[in-house]
Amino acid sequence: MPITTIDPNTALIVVDLQSAATEMPTVHPFDAVLANAVKLADAFRAKQLPVVLVNVAGGAPGRTEHDFGASDLPDGWTDLLPELNRQPGDKTVTKYTWGAFHNTDLAEHLQELGVTQVVVCGLSTAIGVESTARQAHEHGFHVALPIDAMTDLDAAAHENSATLIFPRLGETGTTAEVLARIGA
């Protein structure tokens, strides 16, 4: 289903495109996903729409079979990829859980800017992107998800999010559709 509408006050949220991401065995070519995220960020900035760059610096404290804590992270892990071309007006959010809204000021920041919709992309589809999209939806934001600007480490997880979960949270489509809707 295509992305049909982008509100005039829409923000882009780019999730976890940081230094360690380039080494991960993603199911879609990482360079293409990054290129689409960069196109979106550049276009949003050109239209003076908010850009939020999110990195992850640890995991939630609950016990899991795949423990992930801040002490396990290599040096430079949280560094945003230089291709994103972080600008002074961009909002940077460091998260310690899967979603970018939990225990951060992201919702308040977006509300202060009058944002009514978010476009969410990045890594990984079924974890950081999906959790952020769910939280955005729960905060009352319209959600758009350009599937070609995200990837996962697991093909089945990506497909599940893209085809079963995301249509319940918002509209799915392509980077080109988002760019067309914002007039880029």
UniProtKB/TrEMBL annotation:
Keywords: Hydrolase. The keyword Ribonucleoprotein does not apply. InterPro entries: Isochorismatase-like_dom (IPR000868), Isochorismatase-like_hydrls (IPR050272), Isochorismatase-like_sf (IPR036380). Residues 10-177 form the Isochorismatase-like domain. It holds the Pfam family Isochorismatase. The keyword ATP-binding does not apply. One of its GO terms (molecular function) is hydrolase activity. PANTHER family: ISOCHORISMATASE FAMILY PROTEIN YECD, PEROXYUREIDOACRYLATE/UREIDOACRYLATE AMIDOHYDROLASE-RELATED. This is Hydrolase.
